[in-house]
Structures are given as C-alpha cells and as structure tokens.
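Notes from hallway chat w/ T.B., transcribed later so I don't forget. T.B. wanted the structure written out for a chain they're using in a teaching module, and asked if we could keep both sequence and structure tokens in one place. Agreed to drop them here.
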Amino acid sequence: MNASCDGCQGGAQLDFDFSMAFQPIYDLQAERVWGYEALVRGVNGEGAFAILSRVSPEQKYRFDQACRVKAIELASRLYPSDAELRLSINFLPNAVYDPAACLRATLLAARRNSFPLGAMMFEFTENEEIVDTGHLQNILTEYRRQGFITALDDFGAGYAGLGLLVEFQPDLIKIDMKLLRGIDRSRPRQIVVASLAAAARELGITVLAEGIETEGEFKVAHAAGINLFQGYYFARPEFERLPALSVQPVAMSAEASLLRH
C-alpha cells in the first residue's frame, strides 16, 4: 500500500507499553461464543485507565494504531485455528486522518498473522464527540469496503444517541450497560431497550447487550429480541487469554426456550 497522509507520519511516539485482556461475546441463537473484545491493559494486567490516562493528544494516532496491531497479534496466537471467532477492536474516529492510509498497519498486521479481515469488528464509541460526521462516514465506508464489521459502542450513553443512528447505520450497535442495569426491575428501561432493538431490526442492524451482570438482565434483554451478549454474567475479561464462560450455554438455551413460550 502506498497510501499515506501527513497525520500518519506525525504524532508523538509512545513512551509506555501495554497489552490486552479479552472478554467473550456470546451468541445465544448459535449457542456459542461469537467473538472476543480486546480491552487495553497494562503489561502487568493494570486496568485500562492506567494506560488511557497516559495517552497525550499527540499520541492518539500512534496509540490507536498500536492497539489494533497488539489485538491482532494476541488474537492470532490465542484463537483456535479452526474457530470462526470475531475480534472486536475499539478505535478512535478522531485519531484517523485518512481512512485508507490509516489502515495500512492494520492490514499489514492481519496479513502477517494470517488473520481474516472479515473476522474483525471495529467499534467507535459515542462517548467520544464526533467533530466531523462526514469524516466518520468516510471511515465506515472504507472499513466496510475492506470487509470489516462496524459497530457503535456505548449506544444510549454518549453525545448523539439516536442522532448518530440516523446519520450512520453500522452493522452492529452495543446497547450501553447503563440502559441495561437493573432492566428486569425497570419498566422504562424495558420499553426503551425493546424500542431500540425493534428500530435496529428494521434498519438491518444487529444488537448486542453489553455489561450484562445478572440472570434477570439477560432474560429481559433476550425477551426484547437481543441474541448477542457481553458482560460479567458470561465472563470477566482475562489478561492475555480467552476466558471460559461462567454460565453453561445449555442452561442459557433452556432459559431462552422458556421465554419463547
């Protein structure tokens, strides 16, 4: 690839190292792990804040690039060769200068590690204010052209909410845990989440419920038509390894069957 841009050549070097933890995303309909989200950690397993707090504005681009490469390298080492698993990577839209040029390191890492492009999902969060919506649209268009899955993270908790969904239709939205916390005891939450899930279905967008911590939250989210789940109820993130599910898929499938009758 010869594409380049001034932004990709600049930016301060990183003066710290980091690694990743992985948390599973469970597909109830398929009754298996759908993929894993790569989450930033310190080299000794320190939490994300310990690393993110060290990233200066001048280091944003290089950090974004380094996260992608680290996630791909670790996942290619940890994923079973015969498993059809996705890798979910967070990215910073405001750190991307030119979509095609800024993908160079990602594509090289994928090629070097024989990691399929179609197995990668890139999440952008609405907790980061999007200063140029046209630029974000260009990013999503280029990522889809490369075969990546696109996702809107923390949906319902950030700057634009439904406005972003109207402007952009990613492949997947992750409903924020604040909307799901205690949903089994909150009729307003149930109505809002069910409405969001219904709207997403009409738009052809997959919905994932993140931050699920209890059986009650899981049951109500599934009753709203959601089949992808992530959260402590299923497994906590584990440092540089793939955690086992903390609940049995068969049991979850049985619960789902009861909800349908």
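Follow-up for T.B.: The chain is about 40% helix and 20% strand. Might be a good example for the class.
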